[in-house]
């Protein structure tokens, strides 16, 4: 089975080769026609295209003014990316100036901005700060003139743009500097007015005086409380003793023992029975009396101490209330002072920064150098880049060969079909 399949494939391949050999003149003819046609078109129909190339170098500004973020927001940056420069090169404004300078809009050229834009290609050379400008045209001299004119115009335009941006920055900083000067003057004036009427020193002095009084009053209050405790303890002790003591003492005496009665008996005569008489009397207990007097004195002293304690507590409460009010007023005064000082400091800093930037821009304006420089201008190209005649002829020959083979097989198929039709008839 496999041998039969191999034999069939060998027969088919041999048939193909026989067709190619038998129809070789068709294949050769088609191939030659394609080659000759491509050669005719390349040499006599297609116009040669020449490419002229110039190279630019982009560098950072020699004097670069770095502004604060708040200020930078309003001023365009003079440092652009290479991609931005590439887009600026092909701006319609520059293209129109190139056309006008070289009179490319006049016969026989009659080029438009769109035509010129298609002729130029801009390439950013990788890992460098170089930009390559390549222009294609049928005239080598015109290609050189256009790309060189374009290059010089762009360098000049970029220099003008850089100078314009620096001047815009200068004008902006000048306006902001004047506004900042006014703000600083207003802030300092408010600070001066506040210092003339502020009560910070007076409030601090009053607070110190109240605190000293509070210390003295609280110290006295502590002594009074201690004295009250002592008096209360003394009163309790005296009351305990009084409970045990009798207020009156009962005394039993004979007439003889009483001096007054004894003298009286001496006058009226002595009677033995009368002399033996005894009588009972009550007298105030001196111990009880002394304790009662001491208790009264302690009660008076306790009342006086409690009155003093109440007055001290009332005065301390008033001191605290006044102290709290003074502290709030002092805090508000200091807050106002802090805010005014902060406003003055910010105004001074802003004015200082703007003054410094104004000087930097002034220096930058006097020493402005172009950020785009010409590395090399284009020279007149000697040989065209298009059309590639050898390549065109080679490709046409290959395509002609394929087409010739297809034509040969088609002719072979056509003739075999006609012979089969004749045999059938």
Automatic annotation (TrEMBL):
InterPro entries to which the protein is assigned, alphabetical: Bact_polysacc_biosynth/exp, GNVR, LPS_length_determ_N
Q: This chain belongs to which protein, by name?
A: Polysaccharide chain length determinant N-terminal domain-containing protein
Coiled-coil portions: 163-248, 302-343
Major location category of this protein: membrane
Record key words, sorted: Cell membrane, Coiled coil, Membrane, Transmembrane, Transmembrane helix
Where found, per UniProt? Cell membrane
Tell me yes or no: is Nucleotide-binding among this UniProt entry's keywords.
Answer: no
Where do the TM regions start and end?
25-46, 393-414
- Please state every residue range assigned to the domain named Tyrosine-protein kinase G-rich: 332-410
Tell me where on the tree of life, at the top rank, the source sits. Answer: Bacteria
| Domain Polysaccharide chain length determinant N-terminal intervals | 9-102
Provide the GO MF annotations for this entry: protein tyrosine kinase activity
**Pfam families this protein is in?**
GNVR, Wzz
